[in-house]
Amino acid sequence: MFFEEQKSQKFAIVLAIVSAMTPLSGWHKLYLQQYRWGLIYLLASVTLTPQAMDEMPLLSYFGVAQAASLLEGIWYFLQSEEAFQQRFSRAEASGSLDGKRAEAIHPQMVSETAQAIRKLDQLREDGLLSEYEFEQQRRQLIDGIKK
Hints:
mainly alpha, 10 helices, 147 residues, elongated
């Protein structure tokens, strides 16, 4: 459940709200595989002011991390499922290409581009292209793959 590619928006909302009501916050961040933020939330959970503990014994553990967790739970709730998945799915978190972009790059195109770069390199080694010309044409070929 914690390592699935598609994260459950409802489960993240529940975890954020539960994090806001418990002494230790940040469970929703850990679920969304934002481990640094989860650790920050857990550490911030223990930053309580003595005045708040005296005035509100029922909410004596309500601090900065709990308030942030509650706000994030509301934010998750207000997002569409598509926006939530786009932001928190595993592919986006790892910085990899999205599905549409990955489909646009064909192996045949990559192979042809690599072969063309090899030919350009041979021309450069033979002295028929300058380093500058080689680099310009190489970049054009690579940019052609990206589009």
